[in-house]
Amino acid sequence: MTGPVLPRWILVWLCVGYAIIAWDVAFVLLRPASLPDGSLGALWAIPYARYIAVDHSYADLANPFIWAQAIMSLFELALVLVALGAVSRRHPGRAHLLAFCASALTAAKTSLILLVEALSGFANIGHNAPLDAVLLYLLPNAVWIVVPLGVAFVTGRRLLRGVGD
C-alpha cells in the first residue's frame, strides 16, 4: 500500500484529540488533587477552572457518571494507541477498524453525556446563561460527536470496501 494508512486529518485527530482526552481523564481520576485548590491544580488551571464553573459535574467528586465516563475514556485511549501502532506497522485494515471503534465509542459516550444532562433537567449546567451554555458546553461537546462520527464514517466506508492488511 502506498500513501498513508489512514487519511492525515484522521491521524491528526487521533493524536491531538486523544491527547486532550488523556488530559481530561487525568483531571477526573486525579480529583481532588487536580481541582483548582488541589496540589496538582496548576496543571489544569486553564481551562478546567472555568469549565467546572460551567459544568458542575466535573467538580462533583460524588458523581459516579463522571468517574465512569473517565474510565470508558481509558478504553478509547487504548484503542487509539493500538490503532496508531497499526498505522506505524502499515496495517490499514486494523488501523481503520480500531479508529472506527474508538471514534464510535467517543461519539456514543459524548452523546450519552449530553443526554444524561438533558434528562437531569440540566442539573449541572442549568445555572449558566443560555449563550454560555451553548458556547462553553454544547459546542465544545458537539466537536466530540461530529468529528468522531466523521472518522467513523470514513473508516467504516473504507472497511466496507475492503481495506487490506
Rg estimate, integer Å: 17 Å
Structural class: mainly alpha
Mean pLDDT, as a whole number?
94
Biggest beta-sheet profile: none
Count of individual helical segments: 5
Low-confidence stretches: none
Percent of residues in helices: over 70%
The helix/strand order is: HHHHH
Number of strands: 0
Through-space gap between termini: 9 Å
Q: What would the principal axes of the Cα set say about the shape?
A: globular
Strand residue percentage: under 5%
Write the layout of secondary structure elements.
Elements: H1 8-29, H2 45-54, H3 64-88, H4 92-119, H5 130-161
Helix pairs in contact: 1-3, 3-4, 4-5
Protein traits:
165 residues; mainly alpha
Question: What does it look like?
Answer:
There is one protein chain. The protein is an all-alpha fold and 165 residues long. It has helices at residues 8-29, 45-54, 64-88, 92-119, 130-161. Helix 1 packs antiparallel against helix 3 (64-88) and helix 4 runs antiparallel to helix 5 (130-161). The protein starts with 7 loop residues before the first helix and ends with a helix. The model has no long low-confidence stretch (mean pLDDT 94).
